[in-house]
Design a protein that fits this description.
This protein is mostly helical. It has two domains: 2-210, Up-down Bundle (Alpha-lytic protease prodomain-like), CATH 1.20.1510.10; 217-293, 2-Layer Sandwich (Alpha-Beta Plaits), CATH 3.30.70. Helices cover 68% and strands 10% of the residues. The protein contains eight helices and three strands. Strands 1-2-3 form a three-stranded mixed β-sheet, covered by helices on one side. Helix 1 (2-32) runs antiparallel to helix 4 and helix 4 runs antiparallel to helix 5. The radius of gyration is 25 Å and the shape is elongated.
C-alpha cells in the first residue's frame, strides 16, 4: 500500500507541475498569439491542474485499510475523484464549445506561429505523461491515476488539433482563403468534443462502480472456472463481484455435500479465497456462503 501510494503521489505531482507550466504557456501564448484553440487547450490544462490536486488529496484516504466505520475499505474515494474530474471536464467542454461557436460571429484574427509551436510542445509532453501515467495506473489498478492518464490522453489530440487549426488559419491568411481563417475556431470546438468524450467515459465508469455494477463478464467466467476447479464444489449458486476503487470484492454462494463438516467447508472456502487472491492481485476479499447439497437437488 505504501509503494502504491508513493507511486500515485509521484504521478500526480508530475502532472501538477507539468500542467501548471503548460497552462501558463498556453493561456498567455493563446491570448497573445490570438489562438482560441490554444487558449481553450490552456483552460483544459488548468482543469488538469485542479484534477491532479484533488487526486493528491484523496490518495492517502483511498489507500487506508478497512476500519470499523468502513469495513470494505476506502477504495471508492478514488472513484468519487474520477467522477469529480469527469464533471469538471464536462463543464470545461461546454465552456470551450460556447467560446468556439461565438468566435464565428466576430472578426477573425490570424493566430501566430508561436501558438502553433506551443501546441506542438504540449502534444509531445502529453504523450510522455499519458504513457507513464497509464502504465502506473495499470500496475497499481488505480482509478484516480487512470483518470489523470485519460486527462492527458484528451490533451494529446487536443494539442495537435489546436496546432493544425493555427496552421490552417495562417495558411488561410497567407493565401487569402477566408474560410481557412476559421480553422482555429473549428479546432477549439473539436478540442471541446474530445474533452467531452473523456468526461463521458470517466462519469460512466464512476457511476457504474458507485452503483456496484457487476464486473466484466469475462472476468466472472474466469472466477467460475477457478471455483469449479475444486471437486468439492457441487454447484455455484451465485457469484457476484464489485469494484471498490482499486480492488474487487467477490461474493460467492456454493453448494457442497450436506454431510461435510463445518471445518471441511471452512477449509474449502479458505482454499478458494487463496486461489482467487493469488491469481488476481486486485481481489482483496472473497465472501463465501456455503449451502448444503443433496443428491436429489434439481437446482
Amino acid at each position: 500500500m505504501q509503494m502504491r501510494e508513493m507511486l500515485a503521489k509521484r504521478v500526480a505531482w508530475i502532472s501538477v507541475i507539468s500542467n501548471i507550466i503548460l497552462t501558463v504557456g498556453k493561456l498567455i501564448i493563446g491570448s497573445y498569439g490570438k489562438s482560441d484553440a490554444v487558449f481553450a487547450d490552456g483552460i483544459h490544462s488548468a482543469a488538469d491542474v485542479f484534477a491532479s490536486i484533488i487526486v493528491l488529496l484523496v490518495i492517502k484516504i483511498a489507500n487506508k485499510p478497512a476500519d470499523h466505520e468502513h469495513p470494505y475499505g476506502h477504495g471508492k474515494a478514488e472513484v468519487i475523484v474520477s467522477g469529480i474530474i469527469g464533471i469538471l471536464l464536462l463543464l470545461v467542454s461546454i465552456y470551450v464549445v460556447y467560446e468556439g461557436i461565438s468566435g464565428f460571429f466576430h472578426e477573425v484574427e490570424t493566430p501566430s506561429f508561436l501558438a502553433m509551436w506551443v501546441a506542438i510542445f504540449s502534444y509531445i509532453t502529453k504523450i510522455i505523461l499519458y504513457r507513464t501515467s497509464l502504465r502506473v495506473a495499470k500496475q497499481n489498478n488505480s482509478k484516480a491515476i487512470e483518470a489523470i492518464a485519460f486527462d492527458h490522453k484528451a490533451d494529446i489530440v487536443a494539442s495537435i488539433a489546436a496546432a493544425i487549426g493555427v496552421l490552417l488559419s495562417i495558411i488561410g491568411e497567407r493565401f487569402d482563403l477566408r474560410f481557412l481563417l476559421y480553422a482555429d475556431k473549428a479546432a477549439s470546438i473539436f478540442v471541446a468534443y474530445l474533452i467531452y468524450k473523456i468526461a463521458k467515459e470517466l462519469l460512466i465508469e464512476a457511476f457504474d462502480i458507485l452503483l456496484e455494477r457487476n464486473i466484466n463478464t469475462e472476468i466472472i467466467q474466469e472466477y467460475i472456472a477457478i471455483v469449479n476447479g475444486f471437486p468439492e464444489v457441487r454447484r455455484i449458486d451465485r457469484i457476484r463481484a464489485r469494484e471498490l476503487g482499486h480492488y474487487v470484492v467477490v461474493d460467492l454462494r456454493i453448494s457442497i455435500d450436506h454431510f461435510k463438516t463445518i471445518k471441511q467447508g471452512h477449509d474449502l472456502a479458505k482454499s478458494i479465497k487463496r486461489k482467487l487472491t493469488d491469481k488476481y492481485d486486485n481481489v482483496h476479499e472473497v465472501l463465501i456462503h456455503l449451502n448444503p447439497y443433496f443428491q436429489e437437488d434439481k437446482k
